[in-house]
Prior knowledge:
About 85% of the residues lie in helices and about 0% in strands. By secondary structure, it is an all-alpha fold. The protein has one domain. It comes from Viridibacillus arvi. This is ABC transporter permease. Keywords: Membrane, Transmembrane, Transmembrane helix.
Amino acid sequence: MNQEQRQINFITVFKDSLIKIVFHKKSIFALILLIFTLFTIYLGYEGAEDHFNAHSGYPPISTDLKAIYSMSGVLVYTVVLYLLIAFVRALKIAKNTS
């Protein structure tokens, strides 16, 4: 098997690994937890903003940008973990088939 065929085989295995991980039973629970986490982050920043604006006596503030940064960080972290798990799984499968 030449290098090009191995590359194509690994790409195919990686795509299959991504699909299998997405449609796994546990991934539904992980998606629910991710949505809950993002919702909690947003509500936490919103509550802190409302409390500060209601009780500080200072000009109103906005924490929307901080909330977006935090939520984006959680999403990027989740995607990186997802891709890393799929990559390791694809490596194991490709190694076993060689």
